[in-house]
Structures are given as C-alpha cells and as structure tokens.
Design brief:
Layout: E1 4-7, E2 12-15, E3 28-30, E4 37-40, E5 54-61, E6 68-69, E7 79-82, E8 90-99, E9 102-103, E10 113-114, H1 140-147
Antiparallel strand pairs: 1-2, 3-4, 4-7, 5-6, 5-8, 8-9, 8-10
C-alpha cells in the first residue's frame, strides 16, 4: 500500500489508510462424521491494508437459526477441524476475517451438511452394503440382543 501525502502549513505527513478486511469465501466442508467435520476457505481479495490476523468461524443449525461463534480462538490458517457436532443435526458455517482494525463482514455460508457417520449411506434397516476390500467390525453381542 502506498502512503498518501498530506501537506500541512508546517509539516509533511504520510498517511496509510486501513480498513476492515473483506469477506472470505464460503467454507468448503469435508470429512463429515457424526461429531465433526473439516472446513477450508479462501482469503478475501482485500486485507484492508493491514495483514489478516485470524479468522472467526461461526455455525448455525436449523433449530436456532442464529449464528454462533465456535468455542475456539481465531485461527490463523485457512482451515479448521470442527468438533462437538450432534449426530443428525444440520449445520451451516461461515468465516469472518480479522485484522488490527477489527472484524470484517462474514463470508457466504457453506452448503448445509448433516452430521452423520460416513457409513450411514450404506446402511438400511436390516443390512449393511459393503464393497470388496472394505474392513468391518461387527459387535455380535449387540446383533444377537437386537435380533431377539
């Protein structure tokens, strides 16, 4: 950023104009489980004239509808492992960039996801679909007690 020159009657000042950072991209959600997921996002094109110092991640559910910051300190990287999700609950996430001036506007929300086991799409009421080479651990006691 180039300084702007301001002339006064008795001194010369160099002024740097800084602002809040722009909004990051909508986060991409991956590695969804019943209790966690992984988020990645792209930084804003504008840092406001001063480096981004961190990102605040917020989430909302279809129950409350309000955006709530995650219980973590702002992260300095463009990714975060989110924990403490509740199985079967729908979530959306968004990211807010911060610099020394303050927090910018939030980015667009992620695509909604449902916290669930990655294997749940292969399960039906009474069977499990498996592919050759996959490993499976079965609790026989649980199967015997539920079959009775």
């Amino acid at each position: 950023m180039e300084p702007r020159t301001v002339y006064c009657a008795w001194m010369l000042l160099h002024v740097w104009l800084v602002d809040l950072p722009g909004a990051p991209s909508a986060p991409e959600v991956s590695d969804v489980t019943s209790t966690s997921c992984h988020l990645t996002w792209t930084s804003s094109r504008s840092d406001g004239g001063t480096p981004v110092t961190g990102y605040v991640i917020e989430r909302r559910t279809d129950v409350g509808g309000r955006w709530i910051p995650l219980k973590t300190k702002p992260t300095a990287t463009n990714e975060l492992d989110v924990t403490d999700l509740f199985e079967g609950q729908k979530y959306e996430f968004r990211v807010i960039a911060e610099n020394k001036v303050g927090a910018g506007k939030p980015g667009e929300p992620s695509v909604p996801i449902v916290a669930k086991s990655p294997f749940s799409k292969y399960m039906t009421n009474d069977s499990l679909i498996m592919f050759a080479g996959q490993k499976c651990l079965v609790n026989i006691h649980q199967l015997m007690t539920t079959a009775s």
